[in-house]
């Protein structure tokens, strides 16, 4: 892999890494045919973020030929490369990202003014592909606005606030701080009402409200505000994730945040709605057995790279260092099961094996995951404590 | 009880630095933020008076009865301050006493937007309504019969001195005389530090002083009255000062209490720090 980023794009890349650092502790790097993908997921798997920088974003973009390369590394060390955003803009002219497969190093070289070179050699770990399963296009409610609107909205909430609730009607959006019921008598409640014409796009099919973590939204705002890209927000019922995305001709960013599923009768709504239009990924979401609400596809060949070389050689080369080559086959098998499951009735309980395989390579299967907590998953685990 | 008012954040922010909880007392003409000297808050008490006419375009209130036309609420100034800060650029701000999930001061603001419809933000700050039988705890404290009254040097200067002294000691001695001199001292086993201020001037407390005849005329102008106070209490007071007052004064009752008075155009703030042995 050899990528060269020049000019203002260095700052864009830096901002993306900074906003990913609000999500999790590790950065997943995957050079793909359609661009460089940078991803992160939080420890409780309730938030996932992905940036895809198209080849055109770079002045040079070459990826390892013949096999897929994926790795993960501590996001802090990557952040350190782009530590000072202010000086970055003034001094850095070019950034090279080069993979040295012999030494297992990812090298970031910053070409600064006056011929100064800053080289960071970062070690990495092999990793599986990290891919959240979501289909934002099937979502009922879609909004788009300039980031300023959301920045002006979140400013009303204290930095310590963990979750906000967003409710919509045909004409309005309300943003409230979410308060646990037992704290309600003491807590200060803040509500902001936005009119639909403050948005560039405001499409509501279902009047409902979702509750999600504010911290990750703030992370995206850091990126969106500096690039000035409009933010799109997609959401559906409580319990299915909210997707926030920014898109440009050369980059795409998606933040997928779990929402609280509050009410048992939403479950009913879920299945009823899911059956009417048949969006496969949505069905998958409804059946999600993961207690943290975002389905993570950790299988070998997620959507984008599936268009690349055929699967078997691809899988072989990636896993050559891992002793569990047999695992490979089962994982591929799990994909088939996914497809089966997509077509299956959404109210049917999912295969437990399917679940643990899906997560097997990333986190150890826990008893909690093999149960089906969809209806009683009251709280998305907020990981703010870990990160602050 | 009815209440509708419109408020600026500066004062409340100042108060939020001084105390976690305080009492907001409302009368037809004034608002008071009151902290009564309880052991729990280190014996510090505070009395802040705002004239409603200077803050509100519209002010409606109706107390418990026509004789006791007052409302007494326990509030968290920090919440109030945060709410008021986020609505600083608002076109209008309304503060109302409401009954929601609990009694609340509801702060509603219309924010300027490009849209034809206003962006509206509301903050519900929970309050406790204080029953009338407890009101007597929140009356204006009497002006202490002080030994020395003196104008303070700029608060920022004092703050710089106190911040540094705090690293050395937990207690600070404030002393002043009628000759316009004030000293801030710390004394520890290892070090003694004194900062001297002079030519500060002594306020002329005439007949309008609440005590009999002001500092006694016979007092030796050079004689210092002093009080040893918890340095954190003084620091808290200094941190909170966001605006320079038009007048800042300090009254010292020898070895009893330090009484600080700040006069802004439309606000007065009194702060009492008890002396410790």
TrEMBL record, chain A:
The keyword Phosphoprotein applies. It catalyses: Exonucleolytic cleavage in the 3'- to 5'-direction to yield nucleoside 5'-phosphates. Keywords: DNA damage, Exonuclease, Hydrolase, Nuclease, Nucleus, Phosphoprotein. Gene3D superfamilies: 3.70.10.10. It comes from the Eukaryota. CDD domains: PCNA (cd00577). GO terms for molecular function: double-stranded DNA 3'-5' DNA exonuclease activity. Residues 317-329, 368-379 have a biased composition (Polar residues). It is found in: Nucleus. Residues 335-344 have a biased composition (Acidic residues). GO terms for cellular component: checkpoint clamp complex. Its main location: nucleus. Residues 260-388 are annotated as: Disordered. The keyword Hydrolase applies. GO terms for biological process: cellular response to ionizing radiation; DNA repair; DNA replication checkpoint signaling; mitotic intra-S DNA damage checkpoint signaling. Component of the 9-1-1 cell-cycle checkpoint response complex that plays a major role in DNA repair. The 9-1-1 complex is recruited to DNA lesion upon damage by the RAD17-replication factor C (RFC) clamp loader complex. Acts then as a sliding clamp platform on DNA for several proteins involved in long-patch base excision repair (LP-BER). Belongs to the rad9 family. This is Cell cycle checkpoint control protein. The lineage of its organism: Eukaryota, Metazoa, Chordata, Craniata, Vertebrata.
TrEMBL record, chain B:
Gene3D superfamilies: 3.70.10.10. Keywords: Cytoplasm, DNA damage, Nucleus. GO terms for biological process: double-strand break repair via homologous recombination; meiotic DNA integrity checkpoint signaling; mitotic DNA replication checkpoint signaling; mitotic intra-S DNA damage checkpoint signaling; nucleotide-excision repair; response to radiation; telomere maintenance. It comes from the Eukaryota. Residues 201-222 are annotated as: Disordered. Its main location: cytoplasm. It is found in: Cytoplasm, Cytosol; Nucleus. InterPro entries: DNA_clamp_sf, HUS1, HUS1/Mec3. One of its GO terms (cellular component) is site of double-strand break. Belongs to the HUS1 family. Component of the 9-1-1 cell-cycle checkpoint response complex that plays a major role in DNA repair. The 9-1-1 complex is recruited to DNA lesion upon damage by the RAD17-replication factor C (RFC) clamp loader complex. Acts then as a sliding clamp platform on DNA for several proteins involved in long-patch base excision repair (LP-BER). Component of the toroidal 9-1-1 (RAD9-RAD1-HUS1) complex, composed of RAD9A, RAD1 and HUS1. The 9-1-1 complex associates with LIG1, POLB, FEN1, RAD17, HDAC1, RPA1 and RPA2. The 9-1-1 complex associates with the RAD17-RFC complex. HUS1 interacts with POLB, HDAC1, FEN1, PCNA and RAD9B. HUS1 does not interact with RAD17. Interacts with DNAJC7. This is Checkpoint protein. The gene is hus1.
């Amino acid at each position: 892999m050899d990528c060269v980023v020049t000019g203002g794009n260095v700052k864009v890349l830096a901002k993306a890494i900074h906003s990913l650092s609000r999500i999790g502790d590790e950065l997943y790097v995957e050079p793909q045919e359609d661009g460089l993908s940078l991803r992160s997921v939080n420890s409780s798997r309730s938030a996932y973020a992905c940036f895809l920088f198209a080849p055109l974003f770079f002045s040079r973009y070459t990826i390892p030929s013949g096999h897929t390369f994926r790795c993960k590394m501590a996001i802090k060390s990557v952040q350190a490369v782009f530590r000072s955003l202010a000086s970055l803009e003034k001094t850095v002219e070019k950034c090279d990202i080069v993979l040295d497969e012999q030494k297992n190093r990812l090298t970031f070289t910053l070409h600064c003014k006056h011929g100064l070179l800053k080289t960071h050699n970062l070690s990495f770990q092999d990793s599986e592909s990290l891919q959240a399963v979501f289909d934002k296009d099937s979502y009922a409610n879609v909004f788009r606005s300039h980031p300023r609107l959301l920045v002006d909205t979140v400013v009303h909430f204290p930095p310590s606030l963990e979750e906000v609730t967003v409710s919509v009607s045909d004409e309005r959006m309300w943003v409230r701080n979410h308060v646990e019921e037992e704290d309600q008598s003491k807590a200060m409640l803040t509500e902001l009402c936005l009119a639909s014409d403050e948005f560039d796009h405001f499409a509501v099919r279902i009047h409902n409200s979702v509750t999600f973590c504010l911290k990750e939204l703030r992370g995206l705002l850091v990126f969106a505000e500096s690039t000035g890209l409009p933010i799109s927000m997609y959401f559906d019922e409580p319990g299915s994730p909210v997707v926030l995305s920014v898109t440009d001709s050369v980059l795409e960013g998606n933040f997928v945040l779990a929402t609280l599923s509050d009410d048992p009768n939403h479950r009913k709504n879920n299945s009823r709605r899911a059956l009417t239009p048949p969006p496969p990924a949505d069905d998958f979401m409804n059946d999600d057995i993961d207690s943290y609400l975002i389905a993570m596809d950790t299988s070998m060949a997620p959507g984008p790279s599936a268009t690349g070389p055929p699967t078997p050689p691809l899988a072989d080369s990636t896993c050559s260092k891992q002793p569990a080559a047999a695992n490979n086959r089962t994982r591929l098998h799990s994909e088939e099961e996914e497809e089966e499951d997509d077509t299956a009735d959404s109210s049917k309980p999912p295969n437990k094996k399917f679940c643990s395989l899906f997560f097997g390579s990333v986190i150890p299967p826990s008893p909690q995951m093999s149960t089906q907590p969809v209806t009683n998953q009251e709280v998305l685990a907020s990981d703010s404590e870990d990160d602050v | 009880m009815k209440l509708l008012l419109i408020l600026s954040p500066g004062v409340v922010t100042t108060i939020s630095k001084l105390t976690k909880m305080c009492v907001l007392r409302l009368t037809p003409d004034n608002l008071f933020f009151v902290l009564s000297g309880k052991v729990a808050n280190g014996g510090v008490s505070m009395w802040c008076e705002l004239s409603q006419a200077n803050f509100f375009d519209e002010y409606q209130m109706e107390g418990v009865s026509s004789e006791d036309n007052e409302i007494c609420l326990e509030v968290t100034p920090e919440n109030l301050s945060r709410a008021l800060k986020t609505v600083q650029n608002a076109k209008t701000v309304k503060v109302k006493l409401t009954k929601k999930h609990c009694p609340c001061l509801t702060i509603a603001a219309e924010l300027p937007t490009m849209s034809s419809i206003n962006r509206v933000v509301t903050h519900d700050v929970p309050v406790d309504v204080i029953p009338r039988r407890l009101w007597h705890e929140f009356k204006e404290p009497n002006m202490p019969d002080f030994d020395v009254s003196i104008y303070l040097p700029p608060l920022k200067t004092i703050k710089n001195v106190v911040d540094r002294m705090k690293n050395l000691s937990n207690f600070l001695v404030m002393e002043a005389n009628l000759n316009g001199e004030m000293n801030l001292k710390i004394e520890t086993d290892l070090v003694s530090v004194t900062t001297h201020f002079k030519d500060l001037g002594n306020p002329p407390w005439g007949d309008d002083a609440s005590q009999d005849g002001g500092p006694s005329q016979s007092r030796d102008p050079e004689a210092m009255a002093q009080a040893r106070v918890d340095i954190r209490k003084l620091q808290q007071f200094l941190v909170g000062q966001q605006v320079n007052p038009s007048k800042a004064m300090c009254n010292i009752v020898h070895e009893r209490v330090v009484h600080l008075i700040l006069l802004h155009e439309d606000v007065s703030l009194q702060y009492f720090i008890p002396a410790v042995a």
